[in-house]
Design a protein that fits this description.
Blueprint lengths: L16 H18 L3 H7 L4 H9 L18 H14 L6 H15 L2 H13 L4 E4 L15 E5 L2 E12 L6 E7 L9 E7 L6 E6 L10 E11 L12 H37 L1 E2 L2 E2 L4 H29 L5 H25 L10 H9 L9 H9 L3
Helix pairs in contact: 1-4, 4-5, 4-7, 5-6, 5-7, 7-8, 7-9, 7-10, 8-9, 9-10, 9-11
């Protein structure tokens, strides 16, 4: 039976034996093949491409892609397990959840048959590493007002614009770029363009951005200067569908952030309990102080409540019933709680909590962005308020 590091009782979809076996297998891969290398990845600012190929060999990439397109044929349960195990094992910066749970579904749900056959099998092997380029220097979460354009010409489309804060930006060789195919139409003029970067004239990767946390993640600026794309470069083959496609998939993206946040919460509490039971002060362990026990009791209670909600959102997603407002609740509330609990846990570490070599310090730095990407939490609250 699938259990968390906090021994929160499993329920619902977690009781499935196949899911539990998959979780054990994925956890072993991250623990043995990835965890020893994370310190080096953090120094390098990138996960090497060979690790993507290893993940593909293990069947971790394309977990929810249909078997007919080279995937494992799973569903969102498998993507949730991958995100959880990465969080539990401290595998920060490896952009699998983006690749698997966000980008592959765009292609499988909206792509033409030719696009699916061309890209999905290599997404599952790791030969193709993906990114999605929405954010621009001047737009942030305002996707309707992007400036990047894809204008038709005799050979297809010419792409011009710049993007920033793009996860997998240095590694990616297939980028889904949000662009205006008709700048006069607002949201109706947005299309998602499929950009193969290998040998693409006019495509340029900017610097690998230096961030507060998530140091192993290659987060980049991207520049498109008269990049020639073929006539089949529009996702789904029809212009002007990009904003609709984004809106349909954003709930899953936002809930993934909730799942990731939940995993970090569990790991933070787990490592903190281990630490305070060993660390001594004033002749006894930190655990022996009532304040420590009360603080961690509060954290576990909040974590248990959050886990029930996150699992319920997963159930809704599996039933195609997770709406934008509820997904926004998952994203904003869990990421807020994540930052709160990690901060409490760091405090219980004392001065050592501020040392980067300690996992809690890394979690503290890595967690902060959860309240920003995928749509800032303030935007999430606006989306929730519209339903009231």
């Amino acid at each position: 039976m699938l259990q968390s590091p906090l021994d929160i009782p499993a329920s619902g979809w977690r009781l499935d034996e196949e899911v539990s076996i998959f979780s054990d297998s994925v956890g072993q891969f991250f623990e043995k093949e990835c965890a020893p290398h994370v310190p080096q990845w953090r120094k390098d600012g990138i996960v090497p491409k060979e690790m993507w190929l290893k993940a593909g060999e293990m069947g971790i990439l394309g977990a929810s892609v249909s078997e007919e397109y080279g995937g494992m044929g799973g569903d969102f349960r498998h993507e949730a397990i991958i995100a959880e195990q990465m969080g539990w094992k401290g595998i920060d910066g490896f952009g699998i959840t983006l690749h698997n749970g966000i980008i592959a579904p765009y292609i499988e749900s909206f792509g033409t048959e030719e696009q699916k056959q061309k890209y999905l099998p290599k997404i599952a092997t790791g030969e193709i590493i993906t990114a999605i380029a929405m954010t621009e220097p001047g737009t942030g979460s305002d996707l309707q007002n992007i400036k990047t354009t894809a204008k038709k010409n005799a050979d297809g489309y010419v792409l011009n614009g710049s993007k920033t804060f793009i996860s997998n930006g240095q590694n990616a060789n297939l980028i889904l770029v949000c662009a205006k195919t008709d700048p006069t139409e607002g949201a109706k003029g947005v299309s998602i363009m499929l950009v193969e970067t290998d040998g693409a004239a006019g495509f340029e990767r900017g610097r690998n951005l230096e961030k507060i946390g998530q140091h192993a993640a290659d987060t980049s600026e991207l520049f498109f200067n008269d990049v020639q794309l073929g006539p089949d470069a529009v996702l789904g083959g029809k212009e002007g569908m990009g904003f609709i496609q984004l809106m349909q998939k954003l709930p899953q993206e936002r809930h993934i952030i909730g799942v990731q946040g939940m995993a970090t919460i569990e790991r933070a509490i787990h490592v903190t309990v281990e630490y305070v039971k060993q660390r001594k002060a004033f002749g006894k362990t930190i655990w022996d102080f009532q304040n420590t026990q009360f603080k961690l009791a509060e954290c576990k209670t909040e974590a248990t409540v959050a886990k029930v909600f996150v699992d319920r959102c997963t159930d809704l997603l599996l039933e195609n019933k997770l709406d934008s407002a509820t997904a926004s609740m998952s994203k904003y509330w869990v990421s807020d709680l994540q930052c709160k609990i990690v901060d409490e846990c760091l405090q219980l570490h004392g001065g050592y909590g501020y040392m980067d070599e300690y996992p809690i310090a890394q979690m503290y730095a890595d967690s902060r962005v959860q309240r920003i990407y995928g749509g800032a939490n303030e935007v999430m609250k606006m989306l929730i308020a519209r339903t009231m």
